[in-house]
Every structure is written in structure tokens, then in C-alpha cells.
Predict the structure of DUF4382 domain-containing protein.
Amino acid sequence: MTSARGEDAFQSFKQLNGTTKMPKLNAFSPNFSQTAPSRSTSKSVALEAKLTSDGEPMQQGLSWRVFSPIPGSDGKLPLLASAEGGSADFQLEPGDYFVNVSFGRAGATKKLSVPREGEVEKQVLVLDAGGILLNAVSGSDTRIPAKELKFDVYSAEVQADGERGLVLEDVKPDTIVRLNTGTYHIVSEYGSVNAVVRADIKVEAGKLTEATIQHRAAQINLKLVSEAGGEAIADTAWSVLASSGDIVAESVSAFPVMVLAEGEYTAIARNKDKIYQKDFTVSAGQNVDVELLLTK
């Protein structure tokens, strides 16, 4: 379950705005001449990027790359020049190039031809990008500690092998993820056992979407005690079984702490040559201690 909110791009990304402009950077001609490019024939190429076609030029957070269109011996396009920040200005020899700009995981590429005569018009690349900010709660409104929570971002489309393409993994909550416009499949993991929620979230150009995923899970503390409310007994091995009888978690600890999805479970404690067990229920958002009483 998710809730989402879109905002104007330059309110949502206001922390990314600034006035940084990169200095001019020289690039080599794509003919790989051994001589340095002549200052008399190189042309100034100004580049800027926008989140949307009608948006303002971005002033921060961009990565610019200029490539030769001729693959190298490794089959890759050689990188000729780069810049970081906002708008950029390159000195390029006449010829053909590929210009790429990226903003986080969002990007755009354009073919550029630098003529021998005349000036080069300012090149504007439209990223058609936005962002998502992810968080999660347990139950209706119990905030989940950031250290217990992570998100993986996948493409919405299922590939031929039945899997989705991984876009970004191990995203922490309250982190802005910049992506091209489209729908993405989000996998949220609370803890490391079985509390997993999936959701499809749409990224809109020029907007930041805040999504809160609702987990039906809770944190459970297991204790083997000699009396109710007593100290946990050390050297205890634990197994937790789902209602199906499958083992979902194991631990060797006096006081194991784990997150479990809502449902019915059985805790089994092994201490020395004795075994103790107890059935318990996990309710969303209700963190509890589950005590097993040591019997003589």
C-alpha cells in the first residue's frame, strides 16, 4: 500500500538549485589526431539541461559526458570530455559527437555536429525526469527505523527471463532517487526475514513523488526465561516456524530480535538438552516480547 504526492519540480528539487557553471573544457577531435586541437578551429559549445521542455535550466547535480561516435578497440565509445554541475561549455573541434547528460539515474543523449564554419547554437537536452522519495510505516502509522528498512527499484516491465531489470538497490528511506519518467516497481524490505511489500510507483516529469509503503509486520523479541519478566537465558538456539510449518528464521542468541510479517508462528527454543515451544501471533505495528517459560 502506498500514498504519493507530487510537487512542482523547483520546489521539490530546490536543494539542488545553485549558480554553479562549469569552466570550458577542451576535447580531442574524434579523428584521434596525435596533435593537440587547434584553438583557431575549435568551437565553443554551450550545453544546458531541463527536467521538462518548458522548465528552467538546471543549475546543479548534472553530469555531462562527450563521446566520439567511433567505437574504440574495446567496442566502446571513447569519452572525450566531461563536466559536473549545471550548464556546461566545451571547446570542440569540428566533427560529430554524442553528448550525454545524467541527473542521478535519469539521463538523455543527443547527437551533436560541430560545423567548420559558423557558430554552434546552444544545445538544450530535456531529461524528462522526476524523482521519488521513499519511506514506510508498520501497521497504520508506526514509523520504521531507517536501519531496518531498505528499498530496491526495478523496471516495471518483466523481461524475457521473467525477471525485472534492477535500476537501483539498497535505497535508504528519505533519499531522493532521480529517475526518467515512467512507472517503477518498488520492493520494500523491513528487517531480513519475511516482511516484504511490493508496489508500482509512477514518476512524473518535473515532480518529486513521496511514497509511503505500509508494511503488515512487527518487531518481535524472543526470550527464554525462568519466570515471567525475568532475564533471558543465554546459550539458547531459536527457530521460528510459520503456520505452514516452514522455518522462517533461526538464531543462537539469548535475546533475538526479528521482524516478522503479520500472521501465526511457533517459537522453538533449545537450551542444553531441552526444547521449549510457544505459539504466538504477530499483529501489524505491534512490537512485543514473546517469552517462553523454562520448566524444571
